[in-house]
Write a structure and sequence with these properties.
Length: 101
């Protein structure tokens, strides 16, 4: 994914592969988090380090959620962040579409 743009007024960016990996590493540790991410990517049919679209990230997150426990909690957090970003971006875009030019 290219570097995500922050939503003006919210200072909130869409999560990336690096965010997902970082979250797992904060919960588990550097090595275990990296292993869990790698396994999720493989399970989702993705190549680790190349999860560069929202659709691919969603697939990896779905694979993480299947692992249960704390890993599933991380997956849920990422899912909520993706949905929140999409809704805020839509709100800002709708507001901008109605703004005088």
């Amino acid at each position: 994914m290219p570097s995500p743009q922050r939503i003006p007024g919210y200072n909130f960016s869409q999560p990336t592969e690096a965010d997902a990996l970082g979250a797992l590493q904060r919960v588990w540790d550097l090595d275990r988090g990296a292993l869990i991410w790698s396994q999720a990517c493989r399970a989702a049919g993705l190549v680790e380090g190349r999860v560069n679209t929202v659709a691919a990230l969603e697939r990896a997150i779905a694979a993480l959620s299947q692992q249960g426990g704390a890993t599933a909690t991380v997956a849920r957090s990422l899912e909520i962040r993706l949905r929140t970003h999409a809704r805020l971006a839509a709100r800002v875009n709708a507001a901008n579409a109605g703004a005088p030019r």
